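SEVERITY: medium
COMPONENT: batch folding queue
REPORTER: lab tech (J.R.)

DESCRIPTION
The queue accepted two submissions in a row. Attaching both inputs and their returned structure tokens so the on-call engineer can compare them side by side.

ATTACHMENT 1
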Amino acid sequence: MSHFDTEKIETLSAEFEDKTPQEIITWAVDSFCPRIAMSSSFQTQSVPLLHIVSQIHPSMQILFINTRYHFWETLFFREQLASDLNLNVVDLYPDEAWTGFFQRYGEDLPQQDPDLCCFIRKVQPMQRALEGMRAWITGIRRDQTPERAKANIIELRKDGLIKINPLLNWTRNDILEYANANDLPEHPLTSKGYTSIGCVFCTRPVSSGGGDRSGRWEGSGKTECGLHTTMFNEKGRSPDEVMRTFILTSDSH
């Protein structure tokens, strides 16, 4: 089993700036299989990477976070792609320990504390799913957000997990060209102005001239769910602790 320290990761990442996604994923599979997984939000911009992975390593686990707040169109599209590409999709759900909290505050949480909502519904399930994995493939791109513009193709996390971003240098046009060349489908909401699709409560169509992710968490200043920020390093915050905080801040009014 190869050892990957910070220096080796930085060297590989620099070398991979000129490699194709297919070359990067092939290297990743050869280096880390079977302890490797890919995450996907199953929207239009996810489809090229899903297609590439399905050709290189069809049995790879594709981690899909089911927040229970998805548009039904997203769930339908997930089923369609899983069938068409013969994907090994693993659905991730929030911990059942949060059930009581969601029953009491669930529909208010996206507006009242969107970071906490994302942490519970997205970050924690992904943290659990990646335990024991050596590598994690994502579909982030530098042209999506200022935070993602700073990312590297290969990254070594503090916990030892190696994060691989094979589409980092692709643009939105690259995504569209690949999808058209391979006759890949698009998410049903794309034609209705949704260029980046998350949960129902936090996603809006994008107005003319707006950035691809400007319809996410509109008006909040939030641009990331936390999977690709320092939030992903956070642990803890039990349901009991959070419940006490919300009782003090919400039920007192």
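ATTACHMENT 2
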Amino acid sequence: RLDPQSPERWENFYRNIKKIKKKVEEKNFLVSANVIGGYMYLRNLFGPEKVLYIFYDDPDLVHECMKVWRNLILSCLKKVQEYIPIFRFYIAEDICFKTGPLISPEHMKEFLIPYYREIFEELKSGQTQPIYFEVDTDGNPEIIIPVYMEAGMNALSPFEVAAGCDVVKIGKKYPNLIIRGGIDKRILAKGPEAILKELNRIMPEMVKRGGFIPSCDHGVPPDVSLSNYQYYRNRVIEMDH
């Protein structure tokens, strides 16, 4: 499954890429290259506990795994670039929990960042249009934002408020970072008064700053009513103009 040259992988590619290319040329479509990040890939291979031991017990194996991952991602995305430009390189990482990262910044720099940087540089060299590099992680990622920036990351999501994330504060600290998320899902369940109070705190500052895509700070939970969600979206649209 990790062999990019497997014929089965490309059975539908050539038919689908023509349809997508037409949409891109008509300016009706932007291509997002969504991939499972290196940490999530390693965690899925070894398990969430065992992977932590593997970093210490067999670092060469980790690097071998990451080389296979890099080869798969690059081979597939470079093929896409032969037909259409990539708008966003999106890594689903989930490398953080409530209080911070699940592995250290030092481990990230050793086992993840060099491969991310290599992929991103290769993709940038394959087209003239800019590419946005977005990392998605649960929890609180504040101390690893500069680590990801070393690989070229310029966008991050979803900034879970329950984990201590404050997009206004983070936006001031990293003025060039594109921020997506940051709207507390718990407040969306409380009703219009609480929603408006939170949006009045966030939106004026972030609209003035720019580079902010307001959205729920994770999946919208079932205790958020349709009317509350519609109220929130309507207010966001009003405030963004």
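NOTES FROM REPORTER
The two ends are 47 Å apart (CA to CA).
No errors were logged for either attachment.
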